[in-house]
Amino acid sequence: MRIAILAHEQFPNHAKTAIGILRYSDHNVVAVLDRTKTGERVCDYVSDVQDAPIIEEMSQVSSEVDALSIGIAPIGGGFDSTWRSDIQDALVNGYDIINGLHYFLEDDKRISRLADEHNCEIWDVRKPPDDLTVSDGTADNVDATVVLTVGTDCSSGKMTTSFELLQTARDQGIDAAVIPTGQTGVMITDRGIVVDGVISDFAAGAVERMIKQVAAENDLIIVEGQGSIAHPAYSGVTTSILHGAMPDGLILCHAANREAIRGYDHISLPPIDEYTRTYEQLSGLVSPAKVVAGAINTHHIEEAKARTAVADYAAAIDAPATDPVRFDATKILNAVLK
Amino acid sequence: MRIAILAHEQFPNHAKTAIGILRYSDHNVVAVLDRTKTGERVCDYVSDVQDAPIIEEMSQVSSEVDALSIGIAPIGGGFDSTWRSDIQDALVNGYDIINGLHYFLEDDKRISRLADEHNCEIWDVRKPPDDLTVSDGTADNVDATVVLTVGTDCSSGKMTTSFELLQTARDQGIDAAVIPTGQTGVMITDRGIVVDGVISDFAAGAVERMIKQVAAENDLIIVEGQGSIAHPAYSGVTTSILHGAMPDGLILCHAANREAIRGYDHISLPPIDEYTRTYEQLSGLVSPAKVVAGAINTHHIEEAKARTAVADYAAAIDAPATDPVRFDATKILNAVLK
């Protein structure tokens, strides 16, 4: 599938959906829309993903695409009205829309009418199936190793670690699958349920259901976590995934040098060992799991310091750790399978 | 307001919404519908609430009412088609419907059409406002003491304790309010948001918003908790309320002799001290709060053994405890205000 990705004013540092698609999806990205970086290229900013030109608006896309993907996920998931013209341009040209916002474009009358007129599909990725229910508390019955990526914060590498681990496992011939739980993961895998868009009562049930759906064909199931137990807004989502998944092990993901909760400068990150203790204690109430490995994002640190950061982090969590993007995920896979 | 309460096959032990309304609301309950107990009375089963006849179906209600209230909340919140005739009878007579199920009667075409025809209102209590968003992590800024009832399980007395504590505080002249977070609490107070019906991302934000709305007029804010951090399906809701409320203290509610999670016989209740430790650790990651008091439901135990159960429970949580229904909530209030 050929796609354009909308990431106005946010690429690359606040466009984690765009980066995720560029890095892990099978889609061919024809262009990235960011009106503040017109004329530049993806590779000017991010080196280890597929390259694409950065353009000002949808009308400048040089070739046909199959869809326009909304590649940013602002806090709250709201819609920015300045994106409307790009979406309209896409629809007028017959391109589908893939939307990960909480704001459903299907319910936007102007947009959905235009989609109908031009025979386009709108996929509101965050709209949950309407037959969800509560969990049975039985995900631990599946005949596969289940690991869950948990974090010290939002945007701490849970999605990235999940897909890096998937690739490493598959490279070793292991039947593995990622259970995506966020808009980016769902956009990458073209399936799954965005758990933070599910009503709270059914969030754990949604995770349990996804695990059971893929358990028969996989020996390793990597559940993508969300948020953090220390996050003032998203900790409920984190807990629902933890207890819905009933994992065998946890991978704690952390962004090096992060000091406060992202977007909540008044709330400091607790010490790392508070996270391991609380995650293990909380999971133990329903189905015990230990932090078996750690992933740390050292992207903004020079190599030597990154190695020190990894070693310090491994000591803090008392488990093997690495930066799965900078180095690779073998250490994490070995710890998970031990 | 005069109401009838539907509680077919569930009264009284599985009809906690019905009991809550009978005990704490200002509504005049004209009848309870339970086809398995026709001809009996509420007082045959529950002594300390308003009395009413138990009847077979809506057509037998002897006087006019203002509304039919769905007074049961099965796991999953589904709709039982055998209730349809009662709802239709109510609407045909011009009575409103108050519905706490996840199944929205407003979206049921037959029911909503009938409501329109007879000029009746349907209040789907669990339908959240559509302008919710994520929490700011600032509920601890309010100029009031905020306490949260947390539990060892569902149906462990969080709602009951909240309203008993409210009454005791008001009796002492304290400006106090309950923040209801479940269908029963919202039905009792005629306001509030049913948090388990809110999408996970916004659950903490909903609690924060409700606290800020009542903070100016109250010195004591009692937040009704939901579920339990040890619950395989609802722990996410529990965590969202804990971190959204940023309370000054926690009241741990427990049903005496409960051994397994209600509805999940394969999952044992952890020891009490695991709850206090985990609740305190989890709250401490965002905004520290201790378990300052305990409430234990000893309804099914004889008096002498109940007193022992209370003493044992106080020792287990290392804080003052009582059964606020059997005795009263003064001990809890004193601990909260200390």
UniProtKB/TrEMBL annotation, chains A, B:
It comes from Haloquadratum walsbyi (strain DSM 16790 / HBSQ001). It comes from the Archaea. This is DUF1611 family protein. PANTHER family: DUF1611 DOMAIN-CONTAINING PROTEIN, GLL3100 PROTEIN. Residues 134-333 form the D-glutamate N-acetyltransferase-like C-terminal domain. Pfam families: DUF1611 (PF07755), DUF1611_N (PF17396). Residues 35-128 form the D-glutamate N-acetyltransferase-like N-terminal domain.
